[in-house]
């Protein structure tokens, strides 16, 4: 099976609906105002309500309750609101698979959230200026797995069975079954959604940051790689990869990270993960 076999069936793959698409484009339009973005979000009342629930979640620990989308955009920023819309969409596309009872999709979603939170935290701790971009790059890093599951569910299932029976990584299962790497599939998918380059390149490089050493975004790719490593090590959620996770020295060197820092990062990540309940249950709307 080739990468093109999956990409050619792109109509079967999850695509953000028009409102989420419009949110993505408005959020990256330098001319757009907070009101413009809020107006787009409000086109989908259910989405708006779910976003408000996230805005008021423990993760952001805002001093007072926010009830208007306009305020949310002003206080948390365009990118964070865009991230929330994409989170809702991603949750829906993963959890819509739950009729396929053999896999625990909620645990996979938990892995996505864990890596998003871990990436954003690492950006903050290393002083990277645009931490919101890290949240979404982390959240979407394994979308290739979802894409494969949509297009060839039996193949995805076979890969997961192989990882758990042989206790190998998902990447090794891909090799054994000669299927395209989920990182490459995900990169194509996110590119087709018109997301910024940093996001789709990070998806493409999250297992092999060194291959992207020439990229403008090798620091971002390294951060998501490290967050993915740590979330797997902490066994937070399930990425359907059952080998002891390894971290590439290249990623640590790129960011100048030492073992002592990793210990501190791990402690803070555990604390942060205790505030993400509303992200995990993003299926629910806000209660008025
Ligand atoms: Fe991955
Ligand atoms: Fe992952």
Provide the fold topology.
Elements: H1 3-7, H2 18-27, H3 34-41, H4 45-55, H5 69-76, H6 78-95, H7 105-125, H8 131-139, H9 143-151, H10 153-166, H11 170-177, H12 182-192, H13 197-205, H14 218-233, H15 249-255, H16 259-273, H17 277-280
Structural class, please? mainly alpha
- Give the helix tally: 17
Domains, number? 1
Q: Residue-averaged pLDDT, rounded?
A: 93
- State the shape: globular
Largest sheet: none
Main CATH class: Mainly Alpha
In the CATH hierarchy, what is the superfamily?
Hypothetical protein af1432
Please indicate the percent range of residues in DSSP E strands (runs of 2 or more): under 5%
Number of strands: 0
Report on this structure.
The protein has 17 helices and no strands. With 288 residues, the protein is an all-alpha fold. The chain has a single domain (3-280), classed as Orthogonal Bundle (Hypothetical protein af1432), CATH 1.10.3210.10. α6 (78-95) runs antiparallel to α7 and α14 packs across α15 (249-255). The radius of gyration is 18 Å and the shape is globular. The protein has helices at residues 3-7, 18-27, 34-41, 45-55, 69-76, 78-95, 105-125, 131-139, 143-151, 153-166, 170-177, 182-192, 197-205, 218-233, 249-255, 259-273, 277-280. The structure holds fe (ii) ion (2 copies). One fe (ii) ion (FE2) binds at residues 111, 115, 141-142, 228, 239.
